[in-house]
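Q: Structure tokens for this one, please.
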Amino acid sequence: MNAIATHPIGTTPLPILSSQNQGWENILVEQFQQPPGEERSHFSEEHAICLSLAPRPVRLLQIKGGRTYVGLHAKGDVSVTPAKTPYFARWDSDDNCLQIRIASRFIQSVARETIATDPDRLKLRLEFQTRDPQLEAIGMMLLAELKQENVGGRLYIESLANVLAVHLLRQYAAPKSQFIVYSNGLSERQILQVVEYIHEHLDRDIKLADLAALLGIGQSHLSHQFKQSLGMTPHQYLLGQRVERAKQLLKEGERSITDIAVLCGFSSHSHLGQQFRHLTGMTPKAYRANLTHRFV
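A: Here is the predicted structure, written as tokens:
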């Protein structure tokens, strides 16, 4: 992602967690824990969202877009800095925050799919300090995924990136956007196409872009209509089918759970265990033992 950031005083702060090397497209998520200091940034091709995670309020000076703001930022407070907006900040106590940078070209791409007005005219509104429960929830889901380092979660990350983009367009776009409403779900033929593709590629890293390209529609359009048709997101459906395949392989009783995890597209034994328990209420090992007990 193309960005410029400078930190004039001291050394450049390094994130304690970063998605930089996780292969996430269109979005960079980083968590920072920093002592008192200041920062100067200028992201030319990305919009930046900062979510405060600090357990205690932090007094923060912000200068961006020719405007100055001083206030106490508490846990859950959000600031939004549109692309190409010079930004300066100074804080006087230990800070903990989540920074989300999302590509402006991606926002425009989503805008072309979801709004009726000219997306090239859209700009995001600058926010110094606001409360946005939905944006906070998206940030915390991204942080949870960042902590888990699940290599197989690309479809989930792409889905979250799309949800984030649509939310930014709905709440922070100027001028106010008129959204296209899709009244119908996917056709039976389209559902079969997507479902068959998922079933045939369960062991691979399926991307939302792949599914959208399959039908020749936009990613946000696909996510919305898929959920409208099947009552769940593409990611939820994918996880469910991977667990179903794992159950079938466990019944055969020949392969190790680690091998089954790989064959079903999970990043690790523990990733399979986590999702399997979430959907079935038991671990893969317990599921296999239960099957063995039933047939003894």
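A few notes: Confidence is low (pLDDT under 50) at residues 1-11. The CA atoms of residues 283 and 295 lie 19 Å apart.
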